[in-house]
Amino acid sequence: PFERCVREVLQEAGPGDYRVTPRAISALQCATEDMLHTLFQGASRIALSKQRDTVTVEDMYTAKFIIDSRV
Q1: DSSP conformation letters of 22-54
Q2: Secondary structure letter of residue 8 according to DSSP
Q3: Are the C-beta atoms of residues 59 and 41 closer than 8 Å to each other?
């Protein structure tokens, strides 16, 4: 499923014959999972700081803003 998603994104990127090795797919998946884990972890901490158990869209945007501002 992840490889299919990568190939769809490459098709949307424009015309061309894109070749992606299995190692590259694996590296992309690992990086994606790490980024999502960091995002959800940050959003969860924001929700907890507001004494909530549920993560909201606003928490996700705030976490993304904080993560992006660190880079």
Answers
A1: HHHHHHHHHHHHHHHHHHHHHHHHHHHHTT-SS
A2: H
A3: no
Question: What SS3 class is residue 13?
Answer: helix
pTM above 0.70, yes or no: yes
Nearest to 10 by CA among 57, 2, 61: 2
- Encode the chain (71 residues) as per-residue pLDDT tens digits: 999 999 999 989 888 888 899 999 999 999 999 999 999 999 999 999 999 999 999 999 999 999 999 87
- What is the dihedral sign for C-alpha 8, 14, 19, 21? negative
Per-residue tokens: 64: 């993304």
